[in-house]
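REQUEST FORM: STRUCTURE PREDICTION
Request ID: SP-0412
Submitted by: Lab K.M.
Chain count: 1
Length (residues): 173
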Amino acid sequence: MMVISIFLVVGIDVGFNSNSGQFLIKHFGIDSTTAESGRSVYFFGRMLGTFAGAIMLTRISSRTFFIWTSALGIICLASILLISSPVIAWVLVFLIGLAVANIFPLVFSITVEKYPTRINEISGLMMMAISGGAVIPLLIGWISDLSNVAYGMSILIICMIYLLSVSIYSLKR
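STATUS: Completed
RESULT:
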């Protein structure tokens, strides 16, 4: 479950990064030069999310934080597909970066904590799962070509729902 989580979170990261410009252009009518700066807004959110996550994890359990960041990701991804305001879209692009920032290290640390004697195997599997960064964007592009970019981006919500379910499951264990 955790290896698939890494596969999906890297896919979400690369998929949103690679498709956010086209999405902002087609869904909100933002000009292409401005829309391509969506990547910078996304990575600024990721950067701040990493710093804020490091501070917050000193006070909150990693499993609880995993649940909250997964839920925030679902809310923000669903919202950006449903709204029509370009201004709110920019805020949501930032918040999506904020939400996704800590999921990879959370999944890794929760897994290593559970199986400390198998760290080499876990590390190898997790690094192999980075291939999700190639597969998920391909799937988004394929669905976008078949229908539209909003449907393609909805793949990211499905991935985040899986991550939320894994985070809830890991809290119970």
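NOTES: The chain has a mean pLDDT of 94.
Reviewed by: T.R.
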